[in-house]
């Protein structure tokens, strides 16, 4: 089934143009279509809304601070099973686990810490819709599906 996911190349990653290019090439080589993209610095409000489910976690403040520290590369990606495929390409959330279990994953190669773990990807179709609405408020997902 054709699916979309919201991918973020986090601020520490896009600070390095070579890392950014490596990940962009990987996105295209793996057959994703880039439906929408922008370089955008999340505001405090965006980051708090985006990560609301983590508000009670010990890493929440660190995560929000890191995500607003500079621009991110933000993408709506489409392909069959886009959500699962992108999460597989990213590897595990925790970087030590990514380096150990899947060293060639994006997080295994480019993650610096559990917070600065290179990339984000939606974990379900509902999350993808919610996250796209936050970061691409002008993008009409329903219309896009109908037109395909
Ligand atoms: P992301 O995919 O952006 O979604 C939630 C983020 O919380 C996750 O990537 C990590 O950056 C961060 N995160 C999750 N678990 C931890 C943790 N144990 N320590 C620090 N940050 C974490």
TrEMBL record:
SUPFAM superfamilies: Nucleoside diphosphate kinase, NDK. Residues 2-143 form the Nucleoside diphosphate kinase-like domain. GO terms for biological process: CTP biosynthetic process; GTP biosynthetic process; UTP biosynthetic process. It comes from Henosepilachna vigintioctopunctata. This is Nucleoside diphosphate kinase. Belongs to the NDK family. It comes from the Eukaryota. GO terms for molecular function: ATP binding; metal ion binding; nucleoside diphosphate kinase activity. The keyword Magnesium applies. InterPro entries: NDK-like_dom (IPR034907), NDK-like_dom_sf (IPR036850), Nucleoside_diP_kinase (IPR001564), Nucleoside_diP_kinase_AS (IPR023005). The keyword Heme does not apply. It catalyses: a 2'-deoxyribonucleoside 5'-diphosphate + ATP = a 2'-deoxyribonucleoside 5'-triphosphate + ADP. The active site is at 120 (pros-phosphohistidine intermediate).
